Fold this protein.
Amino acid sequence: MTLYSYLETNYGYNKPIIVSELKEKDELKNKNLKQLLYTLEKKDKISRYSQGVYYLPTETIFGKSTLNIDEIIYKKYISNGEEIYGFYTGFTFLNSIGLSEQIVAIPNIVTNNTSSKKRFVFYKKRRTALLNKSKVTINKDNFKILQFLDVFRFISDSYIEEIIKGLIKYIKREKLSRKDVEDYIKYFPKSTMDKLIRSGLIYEFTLKKRRI
């Protein structure tokens, strides 16, 4: 199978192809990806969006298609559809679960995939996300409790009171447990536990470990 056929089969059109991810694929580990991608680009078979990001374009009435920046950010720093290695936090997360209408210009993300404690990501010379290095490895089993606990860095006691019913519904819906809190609260500021106790939310978690 040629590289182009592989990309067409496994990624499809107008989807971000992350070079660092390609290098980890068993089928491609011994290939000179840099040269192969360069050749495909010169033949106009693929397009380079930015350093380390390619895609298979389609033709539109306005010319060659481009990528959605949000999809690139999501794939690089949150999930590739198989693994989970990050999550949205702050008001970006609260918006996603219907507990805020605050407009967020730059999404705040906690991820495994950054070497810096905190940094902005730029695409096309524009800030597109704020990355925070996770203190614990994020995976599909723990991302929901980590995401929930992390949001308390951004909200005050008074705001918690405003959205308390929604937070309780989220705890119940996702079956977050007291054991989850005990396992991960050490990675968060003391103020997080203080807010959980003052608000009464600590008593809303199920006693048993949630089933995945």
Observations:
- Residues 69-204 form one domain.
- The two ends are 37 Å apart (CA to CA).
